[in-house]
Every structure is written in C-alpha cells, then in structure tokens.
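Whiteboard transcription, Tuesday session. T.W. wrote the structure tokens on the left side:
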C-alpha cells in the first residue's frame, strides 16, 4: 500500500465513522452537533501538511491554509455581541479568504497539483453560498460538506478505486466533496418512486402528494419528524406539497381533527446526512458519475 493509499484509507474510515454516527443522530433527533464536523475539519487540516509531504509538493503550497482557516473560523465560531467588529467579522474573514485565493491563484494556478488545493476553499465558499440561497437547507449538511472539502483535497484512490476516475482536470473541476453532494442528490431523486409504490400499495393515490409523502394517523404525527401537506385555511380544506415555514403543528392538527380527518398527508423531514453517507461511499467506490459526460 502506497502512502497516498494509506492516507485515503484513514480519511475514508474516519469520514464514514463520523457520518455514520451523525446519520444515526439525524434519524433520531434531526440534530447533529458541530463536534462531528469540527473533528472532520481538524483532521483535514492536520492531514493537509502530510499530504503535501507525501506528494512531494512544495511546502509553500500550505499557504492555502490561510483561506481555509479563515472560512472555518466563520463557520464554526460565532461572533457574539453588537460591536462593529462582531457585525463585520464574517465579511472580513471571507474577504481575507477571497483575496488569498486570488493571490495564490495568480502565483501557482498553472500547477495542476495546486489547483486541487485551491479547490478546497472555493468549494467551501460555494457550499456557504448554496446554504445562504437555501439550496442546501440544513446547517449540518452544509458543515458536513465543508468538512469533507477540507478532508479530501483529492479523490481517495485505493487499489483501483474509484472505478470512474476521470482526468486530473475533471477532478479539479468537480472536487470530491461536490461529487458526494451530487451522488447524494441522485439517491434522493429516487424517493418519489419509493413513495409512489408505498402509497399505491396502501391504496392512497392523491396527486401530487403521492410522490412526496404519505398518509399517517393524525394521533401519531406529533411524535414524528414530518411536515403537514394539508390544513384548514379560512374554513377550507387545502392540500399542498411545499412545507409551510409558519406551521403551528398543534393548532393545525386540532383544526383537522375538528373536520373529522383521521389520516393526514405528510412529508418527512429527510435527514440528508444519511444519503450523504451513502453518497460518500458511492463516490469512493464507483466515482463521480458526471465524469461519464465529459472527456477532457
């Protein structure tokens, strides 16, 4: 086993263990503490110098730590207080990160290896932006992806895996953490088929709810991690598919009970850490499916 493969085994073992534990918490409580993602990020930061040494890369490439640490400090360290420094601290940190990325890029962006390192803070910023745009809905999901970006500057390769490897240019363009996100999203795409089969087997066939949720006894809803897909509005019984942010579950259930509703359409609060764990394993073994559509 080469040193690079040894690092890959360590990275994957720790990442799978922590994501596995986080998945269990996510399924039970829909809450995962920062400790998991801080641990992954710290390991990634600690292994980065080892990676540079093992790959016989210039030591000055470790200057990439400047934007990486600047972003991590904002993600995991909240600025308390109403002082000007507290209010503008995030802007300062991301400003440092962006300036550092540009400066380092102008210096070494022509080197293929450094482009892998430069992708780390770029992916971190992309994840932050996606979270702010509500395209990544859970804070834990975003932090998990940021930690994976730090932990995996390059695709982990072990004994010919992943099967779909792609060129160096493709691996730089589609870093490992983003591949995990894409593969996890692909897995989630199949959920409507699962819901459809399950609902038809039960004899529930209301469109389009049949594709995004299921009916359950109204007495059981309060103890489950679900959103309603029906409610009473202005004395009318309405159905919908997009969860309502202002939902008062107790009040809505009482109104439905008064109408004699015994089974209610709900959509589960999907714990995305679970498909992310599956996406991590899938990406490590099979690779990035996007590579099948590109040839450079």
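and on the right, the sequence the group agreed on:
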């Amino acid at each position: 086993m080469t040193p690079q493969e040894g690092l890959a085994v360590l990275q994957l073992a720790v990442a799978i263990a922590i994501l596995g534990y986080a998945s269990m918490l996510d399924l039970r409580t829909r809450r995962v503490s920062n400790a998991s993602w801080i641990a992954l990020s710290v390991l990634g930061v600690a292994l980065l110098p080892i990676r540079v040494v093992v790959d016989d890369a210039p030591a000055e490439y470790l200057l990439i730590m400047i934007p990486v640490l600047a972003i991590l400090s904002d993600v995991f360290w909240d600025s308390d207080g109403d002082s000007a420094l507290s209010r503008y601290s995030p802007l300062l940190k991301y400003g440092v990160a962006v300036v550092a990325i540009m400066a380092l890029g102008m210096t070494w962006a022509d080197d293929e290896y450094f482009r892998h390192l430069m992708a780390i803070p770029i992916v971190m910023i992309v994840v932050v932006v996606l979270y702010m745009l509500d395209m990544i809905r859970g804070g834990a999901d975003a932090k998990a992806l940021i930690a994976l970006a730090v932990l995996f500057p390059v695709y982990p390769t072990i004994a010919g895996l992943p099967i779909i490897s792609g060129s160096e240019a493709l691996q730089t363009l589609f870093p490992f953490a983003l591949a995990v996100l894409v593969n996890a999203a692909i897995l989630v795409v199949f959920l409507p088929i699962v819901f459809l089969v399950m609902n038809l087997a039960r004899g529930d066939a209301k469109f389009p709810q049949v594709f995004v949720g299921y009916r359950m006894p109204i007495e059981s809803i309060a103890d489950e991690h679900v959103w309603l897909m029906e409610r009473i509005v202005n004395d009318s019984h309405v159905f919908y598919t997009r969860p309502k942010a202002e939902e008062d579950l107790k009040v809505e259930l009482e109104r439905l009970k008064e109408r004699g509703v015994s089974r209610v359409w709900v959509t589960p609060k999907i714990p995305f850490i679970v498909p992310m764990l599956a996406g991590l394993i899938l990406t490590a073994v099979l690779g990035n499916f996007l590579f099948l559509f590109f040839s450079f």
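Someone added at the bottom: The CA atoms of residues 71 and 94 lie 6 Å apart.
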